[in-house]
UniProtKB/TrEMBL annotation:
Keyword Hydrolase carried by entry: yes
Signal peptide: none
Presence of the UniProt keyword Transferase in the record: no
A Pfam family of this chain: COesterase
Assigned keywords, A-Z: Hydrolase
Coiled-coil residue spans: none
Name this protein carries in UniProt: Carboxylic ester hydrolase
Domain of life: Bacteria
Residue ranges annotated for the Carboxylesterase type B domain, each copy included: 5-483
EC number assigned by the record: 3.1.1.-
Membership in a protein family: Belongs to the type-B carboxylesterase/lipase family.
UniProt-listed InterPro entries: AB_hydrolase_fold, CarbesteraseB, Carboxylesterase_B_AS, Carboxylesterase_B_CS, Type-B_Carboxylest/Lipase
Amino acid sequence: MSGVIVETTYGPVRGFTAHGVRQWRGIPYAKPPVGSRRFQPPEPPDPWGEVKSAFSFGPASLQAEDQTLANLVGASKLPESEDCLYLNIWAPADGGQHPVMVWIHGGAYTGGSGSINWYDGTAFAHHGVVLVTINYRLGALGFLYLGELFGPAFARSANLGLQDQVAALRWVKENIAAFGGDPNRITIFGESAGAGSVATLLTVPSARGLFHQAVMQSGSGALGVRTPDEALAFTHRFLSALGVAPGDAGTLLSLPGERFVAAAAALAEPGLPFGPVVDGQFLPQHPIAALADGAAPGIPVILGVTRDEFNLFLAGDPAWWQADEPVLRQRLRAFDPALPERVLDHYLARRQPREPAAKLSALLTYRVFVDPMLTTADILASRGNRVWMYRFDWASPVLEGRLGACHAMEIPFVFHNLQQAGVERFTGDSPARQPIADQMHQAWVAFAKTGDPNHPGGPAWPAYDLSRRALLAFGPETHVEEDPYGPERVVWRPAAPASGGPQVNA
């Protein structure tokens, strides 16, 4: 391991070389959002004179532990702090001007970190891409809507986690050339809430020009987006749990950050209580409406889902898998009282999968993930954007096969990180995984380099359009399917669209 010093606009940073890749960890892209800067937009970091060591990851944003995922992959809790605005870089050893990919982690806007080992960028750097991962403020500290209750000083407090992402992208745009990246070829990509962030950034005025391509994995323009009234109602409930009166800015700023995480856990709101707010300033329109108005002209997009997304959230619930059909219907009614009976009948009449629980998991997968993806893809294609859609089909044998191709399963395949600790406990250890990882990773690399995921030696991937609605199904036998969700789309058409999603730290 040898030192690699690079001069940024704020000062020099020393990284290292490992496995033939240059790395820098824990570079600050903004001032610590602590003290008087809590609940304020990110500010550029203060310059430094001496060389700053970039050998260690910065802390993650404060968050609750996701016990389900920890049990599945054996992950230990990461160091955390309110001082969390750091990024990490993996770059090819040869320098040059390589395409850049910026990864926005998921986690329901309440969990996760850019330093999770699944996101290691070594493989991307080996294949000629500069990979950047970022941390951003999460939960209440990143997404609590305060302006209407705490006065003008908090007028820009909405969407701070997204504002952090824009600040990180601005830092990348200004500095990545010194690390061997091309500031005119930047792709943003993310999964779950990270994909929801990507969809939102496509429409944020302050993010325009900071990236050129986008990938949305298991998330889209409808994920967790709230109106000001919805956000304000939640803020009232949250402040009550926190024990802070509206307008009491002194207490709001003096409480330990951990209290905000504890209050959210005690409140235990379903769905995605934290997330983007259409505040009329940073986010002027709902992302779906903004995309329909042409907010992302000319930006190529990949988007997709895993085949069995919702299995992740049900796999650890024995009552779900042991329930009979009437009980499952009752539980789905609790999830959505307006769910049409014909939709339930459609899924229960399917031959595969056989268990009623798996069939109704497919219903939830469509409702929460597939339908918003199709809406986003249709809008982008109708506006003339080049769009490619995928579905990830690798079925994990873990938990007696109940995970299947669940939410987050594709991540180590995209990053070519099947060897990372904990991955086998999630994906299984079959050698059949590797060819799928090769295909997905090379497609993402090709997209970063050319704006098209097709490449020599890879499976042909037709662009998505409103006539064929084709997708590429990545699996043991990767293949193209045309309009595979057509029957479901017809069944769901009269139903109200989904507007949120489950919590997951992935």
